[in-house]
Amino acid sequence: MTRPPEDALATGLRELIAEATGSDPGALLLSPIPGGASRETFLAESEAGRWVLRRDPVGAGGAFAPLQTEFRVVQAAAAAGVPVPNVLAFEPAGGRLESAGFVMDHVEGTSVAPRVLRREELASARSALPAQLGAALARIHSIDARAIEGVSFSEADPALAACALWEGIIDEIGEPLPAVEAGLRWLRLNPPPPPEGQCLVHGDFRLGNLIVDESGLAAAIDWELCHAGDPAEDIGWLCVRSWRFGNDDLPVAGVGTLRGLLAAYEEAGGQPPSLERIRWWEAMGNVKWAVICARQAHDHLTGARPSAELASLGRRIAEPEWDLLQLVPSLSGPGRPGREAEEAAG
Amino acid sequence: MQDRPTAAELLDAMAADLHSEVREWVPRERRFRILVLANLCAVIARELRAGEEPSREDLELFSRLGGIEADDPREAAATLAAAIRRGDLDDRLPETIAGLREHVARKLEVARPGYAVSAGDA
Prior knowledge:
heterodimer, A: alpha+beta, Phosphorylase Kinase, domain 1, two-stranded antiparallel ribbon, 12 helices, disordered C terminus, B: 5 helices, 70% helix, elongated
């Protein structure tokens, strides 16, 4: 009888943990943790404890930061004081985890945003989160991305690079998105000045990628979209309305105000970007989310990943489109209707 | 002619059933999937009730904004999207944005009624 592949993986992982910690964890039970399009994540449990394995799908390449880079970034984030899971060991492709992978300690808590926003036992976490998020972002942005081997860096202006990136992905999908195009065109014509310096950007900093326990932020996870860029990108993305899950009057992830976030950001040594720059990146965040929805629906339609859940995202494109077109004219620019004109019209 | 319930009424019934009883049969951590399916039933029911009018309005809007002659809204959308990308409409971008808000609001009437309001931002 052939052994299931998880068996070999569990054995390899057990060896790796034993080496890294100096004690054999015993037989491990592996269960996949759903979510994450580009990486596989498993929970590994034994009587001795719980760990998390993150690895590349076997045989996959891809546009994401290489797994070893993600491993180095998590280490750099820990050194900078960002709450992250304690990483134990990295194993290259072809080793005991088959594809490239790394193992870390399991962090208790939830990364399901609606739970964070609604559960009674997380009320104190919600009041602590805005300041914790601001401090964590300031520490991430204090990291020099170029000092970490493998982090993608370009001399190009990050704002214009983002316009080109999402235009390219729209073209790959091939569905007409005139509302996204209009917002993108406005963003391309009205970019903020290039940032003073580029720093490490998490790239997907929102409640779905943060583990929260009763005292608040326990760990920032899922660093696969990290890159060098404008610090305002992470702040704008965190303010995208979709990540407020109905708490629309609390722009920061549905838990806090931008003012509160930026005060904590400054307190932790960060230099808060201008509101205008943050708004530009919030608008760009809506472009990004609209295009991701379109791409997920496209993956269903082509048969690459048949799923009613992915299909349903095609009908969510309109939400970030609406927010995008609300945001762009409120940014300053020559010949654009101002805020008051907008309010009078709407 | 089919007997009642109409297609939209059948979808209403499916959505109600998924939302109430069926959801309870599913393990807690998988209930999200049931909510997705129930929501899709509700979206389709609204789309059926709205009929062809929103698509006709979009065709008219895209044609006007892009100065296009087309019979199919998807084709008009593609032509308009390309014109915006090329910068052909840069001199009337604010009007184009204002017009496309109507298109997005029409989609939201079907996909997510109540979303098309301004959210707080400070």
